[in-house]
Design goal:
alpha/beta; nine-stranded mixed sheet; 31% helix
Length: 255
């Protein structure tokens, strides 16, 4: 795979309604955010920055030599936090940033490289992200799983927590059966152009974003293109719940 020139940013917010202090929860003897930072460092990123609102996270990363940017605590989304990072680093409008979520300690480096390259290849897109096929109905109808519908050019048409697209003919009679491979699960890994981030931070949260609680809908509602590529590798689930944490700990501590 060719390489793109990009900076990886790991947003790590201390507050979490389900897992308070999530970035610092230990996995295999190290804080979760350290694992994510290391994964990002293994990618082709020319620079890796952790963006946090809490000195405890900064201090926990000091022994690793990680570059940390302190950000405000009141950002409504991770994208808004990255806009502050882009400004702090004085990045030019064409600079590419990849948002590597701080609760993804198993994220493959290949996906980080892929999303950056996909944006670099599409000069008209403001963002790029990834998706993977959905093969079971439980996942499709789960509101915690974000679905995406793409155009023929791979651009996002819409993201939703609802089961889109809706199979009008078959779901009424057989809602337990998927007839085609039309359904895609969104993977929350984003690449942005810095100039887009500078514009995004000045927009008020859009109505669709507020309804679905999906920050990428702010970009779509303002008419910006989002390129969506099919992930080149399987993306292991991140850590949202205590059950997720136990599963990831078991995997990483046994390897």
């Amino acid at each position: 795979m060719a390489a793109a020139d990009f900076i990886a940013v790991v947003p790590a917010r201390f507050g979490s309604s389900r897992l308070p202090g999530k970035p610092l929860l230990p996995i295999a003897g190290e804080p979760m955010v350290a694992h994510v930072w290391r994964r990002a460092c293994e990618s082709q990123a020319k620079r890796v920055v952790v963006a946090t609102d809490d000195a405890r996270i900064r201090d926990a990363l000091a022994p690793y030599g990680a570059e940390v940017v302190m950000t405000r605590a009141d950002h409504p989304s991770g994208t808004d936090r990255l806009a502050e990072v882009a400004e702090a680093l004085a990045l030019c409008d064409d600079a590419l940033l990849v948002n590597v979520q701080g609760d993804e300690p198993l994220i493959p480096k290949a996906l980080i490289n892929q999303v950056a390259l996909r944006l670099a290849e599409d000069a008209e897109a403001s963002m790029a992200t990834l998706a993977e096929p959905i093969s079971d109905v439980e996942t499709l109808f789960n509101p915690n799983v974000v679905k995406v519908v793409r155009s023929l050019e791979g651009r996002a048409l819409y993201f939703s927590r609802a089961p889109i697209p809706w199979d009008r003919e078959h779901f009424a009679a057989r809602p337990d059966l998927l007839q085609t491979d039309a359904w895609l699960r969104h993977i929350g890994l984003y690449a942005y152009r810095a100039g887009f981030l500078y514009a995004y931070r000045d927009w008020r949260p859009a109505s669709l974003e507020q309804l679905e609680q999906l920050e990428q809908l702010r970009a779509l509602q303002h008419g910006h293109a989002i390129q969506v590529a099919l992930a080149c590798e399987v993306n292991p689930s991140g850590v949202d719940t205590a059950e997720d944490l136990a599963r990831v700990r078991a995997l990483m501590e046994s390897s």
